[in-house]
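hey team, just a heads up i'm posting the complex here instead of the shared drive bc the drive is being weird again. everything in one block, sequence lines first with there labels, then the predicted structure for the whole assembly after. its two chains so it's a bit long, scroll down
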Amino acid sequence: MPKVARVLIRKEMEGMLSTVIMKTDLAGFTDRVSKSSHGDLSELLKKHDSIIKSVIDKNEGKIIKGEGDSFWITFKSVTSAALSAIEIQRDLQYAQVGMADYEKLAIRIAITVGDILHQDNDIFGDSVNLTARIESITPPGETYISAAASLVVDQKQVDIEFVKKIELKGFANAEPIYRLNPSDEIRIFENQVFLGSFLNNFSKFTKDREEEEIEELIIKNDSLVKKLSEDYGGKILQEASCNKILIFNDPLEAIEGVREWVLNWNQFLKNVDWDNWLNIGIHHGNINSYRSHVFGQDLAMALALGFLSRTQGNKIKKSRVLVTSRIYSEIQNGVSSESIQELNPFELVENDKNRKEEIIYLQSSGFKEGDKVYDLLFD
Amino acid sequence: MKKLVSSAVMKLEYSSSTNLESETIEELDSAVGEEPGTYLHKKIERHSGKVIKTEGQCLWILFKSVTTAALTAIGIQRDLGKQKEILIRTAISFGDIIHENGDVHGDAVNQVSSICLITPFGENYLSKAAALVANKAELKIDFLGAFDLDGLNHRENIYSLNTASETLVIKDQVIINTWLVGYDEIMMASLDEIKSFLKEHESNSKSVCTTYGGTLHETLFSNNIITFKDSYSALSGIKLWVNRWTKFLKENNLDNHIYIGVQKGGFRKFRSTVYRMSEMFFTTIARNLNSDQSAVVVSKEIFDEVKETDLVSSLNEFDPFTLGENEDEKDRLRRMLTKSGYFINGKKAYEFKV
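-- predicted structure starts here --
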């Protein structure tokens, strides 16, 4: 082999590195371009950009090239790429709670590992092509990984499952493809402020009202919660039938956000002359999440307070926010004392035939005789 | 300089579907069953709108936000959609306009007038500025294209408000509703125990849906709402589920029995909210049927659908009014069953022995 050729090959081999590659793509973006305004598109791309960059920074990923709705990223390990993918999908889900399906973004992610050439800040090689092919067949909202990546990934940290062998353009043999399942670990949110919210008379409302009015109620509540999430850093952990569980990092931010939510909601109810008051219980502690479930003793307290608030709702005919003594001690310097009322939770239980059961419920949720709760009198 | 105010302006035009000249605002009110002169004003006031002027069959209205203007337009279109006599079209723009002597002037006012002219009756169009300002979380806005408008020297991007209801109507399904005993207590156990419990519960519901064609609509704590197209598939799935769950409980020395009610019915779903669900009292009956093992109770309609199949031998008729561990429980259950109205014609419930 001539010397020049040997030097060129050596030089090329120096740039050849075993590399973990991730490709992300904003599903349906081309379709959105034709339907959305420039402002919408810019907001969409900003959200996409911020989620991906914050996750890969944390996991030591490096963006090789970004094309607006698509990124090529390299990682130091398949496991960190996989954990990043899980986090990106999850964060995107959180960021879009309350949005209609047609408004939601979905990202496809593909991960492979292989020896590729790094040259002029770009990457070349079979694995790069394979990544692009896999990404093109990945359903929106999912992450597919190559066979090689599936062998390398730490399966104690990441749950994967075989999808099928797929014929990919440019590859002689069908490639086995694997799906990355969302985290199988119980996630513990420590030292969080969380709230359970309920709407009064929602079931009756859905029986009596027109479909459009029910949609209006749900859309309004979702929209206010979305604003609360954006402005005060709240995240929705679970929602069903207009009831929501949200978490926040900071008690004062949470209370300020809830105040805005309640006041806007009251104004909305006043305009439309409906009686679906917001009832909210707030506590500070730890909360656990596993797949679609959230649980924990501290959460039980917040939900019990929301429930107590709801049982009273019809009597007092207004929205109500009850907080535990821990929250009260954390916020009392930030709110005026005239706007807080101290209450005995056991005295809030309705004096009817379900009283005994409700007291048992309060006790099993962690309340003891002598405990105090606080009513934040926002209006 | 005259005072400019950023404002959302709506031009609303109403007309008869048969004679475009004949209708009056009173006829529009009566078309939606309201007293003359009340409907439109009530609707506008509800969204804090203010009628600035009327010109023939047109109203000029100012709103505090584009979103409330759009919601008003959608509300009126939906109300009028129930009749065919009166039609309206609305155009909404947003811009800095002059408020003077009870009137409004400015580009946004001219723009809204021009947009209204190209808006078909029954539709609501928005200017580009209005579409950008509107809260997308509350509205669905479609881009229509760029149009040459009367009085404007440039092509204007026009958007349309999508007013279609997006509620999913689920009818005539076999609905199964599950409930686990002691769910709250087990959620206080060790994290490993909780994980194993939830994993098994989720894996069962998932495999029943995958194998027998069920659709999981809602999970809230231990409750799952799943629908199937036919009773045979639903009961076959439940059989698999209960057997697997019973084995899991035995292996882990747990007593969190599963209770399942099965009945025909439907519900509506909008975003994450399920509503107008047929009352799921068969799950409550199942809870009262057996306290020391899992139980499944099905309605007469479900029984009728599988009575010609091999599953019939596993179904036993019983009277739910005899259930209840003590007098209080019996009384509560009887009241619930009577209130449901389901059993008034001597209908019975059926236990599905798995």
